[in-house]
Amino acid sequence: MATSRSPELRKDAIHSRWVIFSPARARRPSDFKSKSDPNPNSKNQTECAFCAGHEHECAPEIFRFPPDSTSDWKIRVIRNLYPALSRELDPPNSESVGGPVTIPGFGFHDVVIESPAHPIHLTDLSADQIADVLLAYKKRIHQLRAFDSIKYVQVFKNHGASAGASMSHSHSQIVALPIVPPTASARIQSMKEDFAQTGKCGLCQVKQDDLLIDESSHFISIVPFAATFPFEIWIVPRDHSSHFHELDNNKALDLGSLLKLMLVKMSLQLNNPPYNFMIHTAPLQIDSTELPFTHWFIQIVPQLSGVGGFELGTGCYINPVFPEDAAKVLREVLIPN
Amino acid sequence: MATSRSPELRKDAIHSRWVIFSPARARRPSDFKSKSDPNPNSKNQTECAFCAGHEHECAPEIFRFPPDSTSDWKIRVIRNLYPALSRELDPPNSESVGGPVTIPGFGFHDVVIESPAHPIHLTDLSADQIADVLLAYKKRIHQLRAFDSIKYVQVFKNHGASAGASMSHSHSQIVALPIVPPTASARIQSMKEDFAQTGKCGLCQVKQDDLLIDESSHFISIVPFAATFPFEIWIVPRDHSSHFHELDNNKALDLGSLLKLMLVKMSLQLNNPPYNFMIHTAPLQIDSTELPFTHWFIQIVPQLSGVGGFELGTGCYINPVFPEDAAKVLREVLIPN
């Protein structure tokens, strides 16, 4: 890492959020390799409730792929047994303004079981199998859109116990919220201000050679200019698109391939770290005037360090790795045949 | 915990930030007790660079208390050996607006060594010794205010490795920033909107009987209405005050006593968990029109669970413990004589 550099503060056009790049806090490159055991459950566990044959141990199923499969399913979308929000409550009517506010916790919290087999990780799947997982997200979002009181859908994956996974069987989660969450509102506001100044969508313009990791027909993968976390990766559609659920089959296959490549590169470079990925999309009921400056993307974050009082207090993160250096390291990872 | 409750979303007037309270994700009360070893260094370490007699191993000293002490100092404020920001750089002139922005990482990053003795924790100090630590923060902030380009000072403490501490010797940190960080800007904006609606400062009004833990002559301690984290505690001045550095000696002693009580109660109830505390104050160069709705406070956060993709993606936290329940538990902790 470039330890001869001076510290810098950067604010990107997407989030208007300051990040401190601090080479004095950098460790040697090898120190970034993860040391934690990513397996959240017992190391010798070979079967769990998410495995084929254990369907009756799970919360109710929403759908499976292929739809008519019995014991030979590839993907199952089920309810979360411990949902953060309840689908049984009355949907809230409208959002109050100002002062302390309470609304019922109406919403949906689902789990996408990505494979019937316990030891398979997402990166073990082929590009077209990963595309099917992405299309399962899409299908579920289309179902959730039918609820007027659902304002936002967050798709995310926790891989590894320290990234928040409580089950080691490969899965991701979908939470449908009755509010637009803070990160989405702040991003829209920031991209709107940027659009007003430049006349262009900030994510349509995001490509910079020194930040590029790889690209495919329809997507690019970069380290963002003001990456919050070391080795954070964004996968961004080349063409302007506000909602993830606009993804078609062709683009899903292309994205499956690039997502797999990024996860494999990150795993090789950083010793299979715990990680999260999040799909950042536009709110469901977005005003059509806001579509020109909202652009969905996937954020991948390896969990390499914890959060301390400085980050909790300021909302400002200290990143010891400059994005150009992280992009170079990830660009140059050699994938064994 | 009240597992018969339904999930709720709450937004407080201070942050306009949604938090999901989700009893379905609650564990048994005993499960909240910390299981992690809070000691960041080797368990048998009895001396380090922060100990009396090792002053030459540290980065340069800024001041000590008592000022004329030689080997019998009580508190030392020193530079951080691995500062996030550099005091050697030219201060940035002004903040650009819009688009990707880079400014030099000018700033200060100091360490407050709270005791000369290695095994002493902050809670082992007497109320007046803790008051001296608070007055050391105040003195250093008064020095940092002299720099026009310093816009905000964040005081924080990381206790325990998983809370971000790299040294087990009791210490806290002070970072002086050339920007107003996102959390402070968002809080001011939110409190301003609340003030415009109610005509009152949201933190002058914050006391609610069921959220109160304890109180002293000049401060109250509560669990906030929309606590982000389980068993989060705020200590709030009763009288309106925008800046922490307005603290006088009398109030420092009163605060030292209440801060100690809160840390002891948290430690007893949750098995000495790793924790952070942060002093949330107003920006240094705040406009006088903003003083009526900015009110400093201390936030204490026990580190009981990690952050997953949902929180990273949405900025919305899931808290399994309702604030009224957390306040009751903390109110009723019995302190052994």
TrEMBL record, chains A, B:
One Gene Ontology term from the biological process aspect of the record: galactose metabolic process
Cofactor binding note: Binds 1 zinc ion per subunit.
Molecular functions per Gene Ontology: UDP-glucose:hexose-1-phosphate uridylyltransferase activity; zinc ion binding
Key word Nucleotidyltransferase present: yes
Annotated binding of Zn(2+), by residue: C48, C51, H118, H169
Domain Galactose-1-phosphate uridyl transferase C-terminal: residue ranges: 190-297
Residue span, Galactose-1-phosphate uridyl transferase N-terminal domain: 6-181
Required cofactor names: Zn(2+)
Keyword Metal-binding: yes
Pfam families documented for this protein: GalP_UDP_tr_C (PF02744), GalP_UDP_transf (PF01087)
UniProt keyword annotations, A-Z: Carbohydrate metabolism, Metal-binding, Nucleotidyltransferase, Transferase, Zinc
Active-site feature positions: H171 (tele-ump-histidine intermediate)
Family statement drawn from the similarity comment of this UniProt entry: Belongs to the galactose-1-phosphate uridylyltransferase type 1 family.
PANTHER family per the UniProt record, alphabetical: ADP-GLUCOSE PHOSPHORYLASE
Name of the featured protein: ADP-glucose phosphorylase
Native source organism of the sequence: Sesamum indicum (Oriental sesame)
Classification lineage: Eukaryota, Viridiplantae, Streptophyta, Embryophyta, Tracheophyta
